[in-house]
Predict the structure.
Amino acid sequence: MKAKIFFWTTCIGLLLASPAEAAEVAIAIHGGAGTITREAMTPEREQAFREKLEEAIRAGHRVLSEGGTSIEGVRAAINIMEDSPLFNAGKGAVFNAAGQNELDSSIMDGATLNAGAVAAIHRIRNPIDLAIAVMNQSRHVMMIGDGAELFAQEQGFEFVDPSYFRTEHRWEQLQQAKAEETAGIFQPQSFFSTVGAVARDQNGNLAAGTSTGGMTNKRFGRVGDSPIIGAGTYANNDSCAVSATGHGEFFIRYVVASNICTRVAAGASVAEAGNAVINDILVKAGGDGGVIIMGGDGSIAMPHNTAGMYRASINTQGELFIGIYGEDS
Amino acid sequence: MKAKIFFWTTCIGLLLASPAEAAEVAIAIHGGAGTITREAMTPEREQAFREKLEEAIRAGHRVLSEGGTSIEGVRAAINIMEDSPLFNAGKGAVFNAAGQNELDSSIMDGATLNAGAVAAIHRIRNPIDLAIAVMNQSRHVMMIGDGAELFAQEQGFEFVDPSYFRTEHRWEQLQQAKAEETAGIFQPQSFFSTVGAVARDQNGNLAAGTSTGGMTNKRFGRVGDSPIIGAGTYANNDSCAVSATGHGEFFIRYVVASNICTRVAAGASVAEAGNAVINDILVKAGGDGGVIIMGGDGSIAMPHNTAGMYRASINTQGELFIGIYGEDS
């Protein structure tokens, strides 16, 4: 109960508004799944990912420990990954076929089942913030394109120049994908670095959020699972909270996030439910990726059917875990 | 087995490719749910709806009887409703706040779980056809806005002038909604006239499709449940096919279509599953609307929690049903 001690000593005022028996907080994050192997990784790059994952998970956990809501915890963790060029979300997002960064995000509140989602936005630094605004400040769940940015303007969001999102690494990835396309090669993307977070707050409320730049060289206004409530993101206090990363088309068809929550509601553990969907159903279908799951009791599972998944968690005991490769545990 | 006799006498060639024991075909359609009461309806208008519903259901059924796939049956029925100014899909779609008709659609194949969806398109006469092209001719599930229309162009779709979709009735609805908005009145829309179809073909394969103009006076690139696989449309041969119409935000949060299929997969009848979600869960949440459901065995349910729902079906016995008001059965 380190969190509680910290809470008492630093935040008496907030405590007065908190329940007598504060639930134990927990949080998990992902930064993408794919063919991540030790062979393909430099020690420097691995270290950079580990440090950023730790920074993000600690930021989210701090918010929760100080009495913040699960939505606020999810947001804090995702903002750090969106701001980092390491991940395919916010700054460092992949480029679409037109050479643009096109961003999607969604959020869901497990206490109310309220949800917000945005797709195909270009000028909002932290897409998860806009998804939260859609949830809280509109009557709608999903807004897309210019309309979503008009809403952002009315809500007082700051706009960044689209060049803010650009990194040379992603630009080179686009050139490579285009060269392969010209050569008639299509290899299903071997790496998906969408980011996401799931959290449980002191009131025992769950939330899930996801943010992405989608697929390199995507065309035609393609939208993946990340902004789709039920597919890439779902949260319900009665079952669990899920954020996904992977080959979005499969995650949409199998309604992955809500599918997992339905299994938890029927009595499966988060590990069993996640395993059934990620390592059985999706493997049979040929859908690569993974999820992070937070149970109503703060239990955590992070199943993935890829060689690796950038992931981290702090459980209800306050124990930190950071993983990259499949065998990390 | 009228269908079979028709089949034998008209279509020997196709029969050779069909299974020895052709499954009995069935189809159901909806044209929107809401506060449809006898008091508010003129006999002429009611007659017009009944005739168009009958035309659509018979067209879909004919395709199925002649050996067409469930996708083709769904498409035939939806095309007729999209082409009719009576329904909020294709011609006769509602106007958004910017005075545009902005169309969404989706399709799902219960045999393969392949799916296609488009949102925020403005120049394709039959949006369900574009959703089908996304499913069959691309690697993606969902395409939106200009990108979706670029794809349509590459696929050889004919474009219509956006004025094609305009009807005076819908234009007046927009003016009224804007006047109410200026006066500070917001009444959740009392009527949703999205169209949809679910079908079972001679191979026993299911499909579901949905097409809509969304909500009158919608802003900000709002996307409802109709193009969201899992929410407005879902199909799986192992359970059922569902198309929804209603207050889209609630249908997204409760992942209505897939939720119903999950219950059917767990052993509920289509009537029980539909009733649980539409008349219990959604009623408690305050979400108005209805669905049409086709079970793997051709059983049909059309639950709605609104005063009425435009609907029609032809069951495996070849029996035609057309309903408008809640008490119709």
Summary: Residues 21-325 of chain B form a domain with the Glutamine Phosphoribosylpyrophosphate, subunit 1, domain 1 fold (CATH 3.60.20.30).
